[in-house]
Structure prediction request, 569 residues.
Amino acid sequence: MSVLVYTENWDGKFKKISFELASYAVALAEQMKVPAVALSLGKVDETELKKLGNYGIESIMSDTNENYIGLDNQAIAKAVAIAAEKAGANVILIAHSNLGKAIAPRLSIKLKAGLVTAIHGLPLSLQPFTVLKNVFTNKAVGKVLVHAEKKVLTLAANSFGSQENIVTTIINHFDAGLSNTDFATKIEQTNKVTGKVLLSDADIVVSGGRGMKGPENWAPLEELAELLGAGTACSRPVSDEGWRPHSEHVGQTGKMIAPNLYFAFGISGAIQHLGGVSSSKVIVAVNKDPEAPIFEAADYGIVGDVFKVIPQFIEAVKEIKS
Amino acid sequence: MKILVLIGNVPDTTTKIKFNSEKTALDASGVQWIINPWDELALTRAMELKENSAGAIEMVVVATVGRQETEATLRKALAIGADKAIRIDTEPKDGFYVASQLAPVAGGYDLIFAGIEASDYNGAAVGGMLAELLGIHSISSVSGLQLEGGQITINREIDGGSQTVKMTTPLMAIVQKGIAKEPRIPAMRGIMMARSKPLEVIPAIEVDVLTSFESFSLPPAKAACKKVPEDQAKTLIYMLRDEAKVL
Prediction:
């Protein structure tokens, strides 16, 4: 028996959530009194692989087949299933990321495992296996029982945190034995977001709504985001109007995020928007309408003009940093 | 060519969520039911594809797992333009249970659309599970899809950017925002026509669930928002550093 954790990489580097996931796997394995084993698929060099050892991972299975770069859902699910069998895993941990969401359901069928997605926190009980997940788009929390012997779990980003715990790591080469025909997704073009903080990775998110009045007014918001090393986001009307790309839309039908700090500028806070951001640890709202529902979700607020407030925020952040 | 769109019946996105007194199930009194928002966008895109296919797409079918009360949602899907609806007559339980009910009716389609998750239990499970049960390829986080001949060009979001990829049929496309610009609203003519379109009811098969909800709780109420006057906005940043300790 073991806990297998699938650690995602991009461009040969582990994604931030992989370290959080590794920390979670180590804690869960300790609770279950079984070893934690990490799985890495794709070209990741030894120096990078060993970084998992900073988060308590003592054993890594690494399959460096280059074809994994195509992020083919079926092929990756198959490889993780083969690794899970090999590691004798009864719990398989996956990030609740775009890729994680794509492969976890397929994997659960292959392994006849119970699937629970976007869980947060360690299991409340191992017998019966009980975990918590948010439901109704963060409006409630559900206690889920897994009846199957095997479990596939996806972990909500930023819900556990990565915990340093330096150990010696052994890298075992692993070959899932996939052939070229297993990879059906043909990549034509990749557009990488460069020079910007990814929303899914961001500890701080700066977000604008209709109160920003138009796409031409985003410069101060972006300046603040850059100073804070923050990701930028927006409300639904803003992306629907085409002021900002859909990939920035946070809310019920957009992205759900859980940063440490969320700034909402000129966002009224419709229930659908709050669903997507309410897991943020601290919410700051700036809105000219004192009755705006965003103030009910916010920890800190200013009733006022975003265009007067943002420059003061920029100034204060500069003072703090200097 | 035939397209299947999986439809979920969920509480309206503005619903104030409450549970029964045992906290074991949603209190559905006063809840307005809608097509799961991502499924509605998927159906909209399916209709656009059919209309632009010059007859190559013969049929768009919608399917759901639910009791009779979900038929209003299926009629809406028919009013939007689907040619036929299938309802598998049982209470949807976990993702595995729903995917297993759909598998016997989902064969033979060239393209199947599923929403990336449902806005009720946020399972994000059925599309991928059904693809695995059917043994077909799937692609997730799809934000754009074009058809040309038998080739499908897809835009998908990846963690760190976006990609354009090519896939072949049969395919399960698990879609998110962007797949269609706005959900289509049924026109009066569509609503009239929907009444005479076929809605097939199929008995459920026996399947054991793998997971179940034991209970639900509402998040604890937040402390009141600390307000700072507009002209003292700078102090708020210092509060974030010294009090909230997030800067």
Notes: Chain A touches chain B through 101 residues (CB under 8 Å). The radius of gyration of chain A is 21 Å. Chain A has two domains: 2-182, 204-321.
